[in-house]
Amino acid sequence: MEDLDQTFIQAPEHRADSNSIPNQPEEIPVIDLSRLNDPEDIQNVISEIGDACETWGFFQVINHGVPCDARKRVEETVKIFFDLPMEEKIKVKRDEVNPAGYHDGEHTKNVRDWKEVFDIYFKDPMVMPSSTDPEDEGLRVVYNKWPQFPSDFREACQEYAGHAEKLAFRLLELISLSLGLPKERFHDYFKEQMSFFRINRYPPCPRPDLALGVGHHKDADVISLLAQDEVGGLQISRRSDGVWFPIRPVPNALVINIGNCMEVWTNDKYWSAEHRVVVNSTRERYSIPFFLLPSHNVEVKPLEELLSPENPPRYKGYKYGKFYVSRNRSDFKKLEIQNIQIDDFKVVT
User: Fold this and answer.
1) How many CB atoms lie within 10 A of CB 347?
2) Which tens digits make up the pLDDT trace of 276-308?
3) Measured between alpha carbons, how far is 61 from 30 in angstroms, rounded to an integer?
4) 138 CB burial (10 A radius; 0-12, 13-18, 19+)
5) Homologous superfamily of the 30-345 domain (CATH)
6) Residue 27: partners with Cβ closer than 8 Å, 6 or more residues away
7) Segment holding 55, helix H or strand E
8) What whole-number distance in Å separates Cα of residue 25 and Cα of residue 139?
9) Gap between the Cα atoms of 115 and 278, Å rounded
10) What are the strands, taking DSSP E only, across 247-300?
11) Quick one: CA dihedral 58, 62, 66, 67, positive or negative?
């Protein structure tokens, strides 16, 4: 086996073989959204989504309305980009200030991930806080970066992202209904949404026993929609006991998971599950997540309607934009301190 750069090596307790059951028979729910066309089945679908959010924090959807052709087009186009020479890819490389574009040095919890990424903001330009300083109210504008080749890269990505965003809001309404809330309850939080769309490429790794495609983490968003290829590699940590098990790729399905914002809004009723990506030594893998993020000025805190004397707030409120900027900069490079986590806002009891 080849030597692996030290920056990629996970601590023993976080490696692919730690606390995992590779052939775990238990699977997250696969929910057929075409059932929403049957008035007598709508409430069943809503209940199944609520149960999945509470038990797993993950589920898969089929017949979801995102056209297979749009997904196939973006998959084929981005592969052409990632196959380009490095000198071409770095022409649209991201930096510490502008998070859009290509990057091959992503870190998760201060360990480098075995992957390349390309990030695209849904709103272009996009507004975010200019610093992590809570007292600094300054804002900055960031713009997407687009490669010259392949020529249809931008069009293919924007087409797919439009379909993904539409589905994200449909799911958000179903999740709201599952909580007994009006379906539009969350809409006002997205007037200046910071949502973004990512392409991940995981090359074959010489030491998949030591490195991870993405280290263990929870998503900092509201909900994520993931298109994954047939190779597989995504694993989630089970809420009941923390054991890791794989998410089986289902043809044309999308993997949905709950992020930190929804976990806080529901006061821990719905679960933002830790997940990671294991790699292999023979096959590259692609995945395409869409992350639904609220506006930068939204204060994320438990919803009043879901609180009671028996269920007091478990989190202090936090400004989403500041949280995002802090997390994003720690993803860009290794820091000497642990990056900010949602548990930092837990109410001490």
Assistant:
1) 10
2) 999 999 999 999 999 999 999 999 999 999 999
3) 6
4) exposed
5) B-lactam Antibiotic, Isopenicillin N Synthase; Chain (2.60.120.330)
6) 247, 248
7) helix 42-55
8) 48
9) 11
10) 254-258, 275-277, 285-292, 299-300
11) positive
Is 56 within 8 Å of 235 (Cβ atoms)?
no
DSSP 347: P
Can you spell out the DSSP letters for 61-113?
Answer: EES-S--HHHHHHHHHHHHHHHTS-HHHHGGGB--SS---EEES--EETTEE-
How far apart (Å, rounded) are the C-alpha atoms in residues 319 and 300?
6
d(CA 227, CA 247): 12
Domain boundaries, the chain: 30-345
Say whether the peptide bond before residue 150 is cis (omega within 30 degrees of 0).
Answer: yes
Task: Give the type of residue at 74.
Answer: V
Nearest 5°: CA angle at 42, between 41 and 45? 90
Q: How far apart are CA 89 and CA 310, in angstroms?
A: 54
Q: What is the pLDDT of residues 53-103, one digit of tens each?
A: 999 999 999 999 999 999 999 999 999 999 999 999 999 999 877 889 999
| pTM over 0.90, yes/no | yes
Can you tell me the distance from the alpha carbon of 56 to that of 30, in angstroms, rounded to the nearest whole number? 12
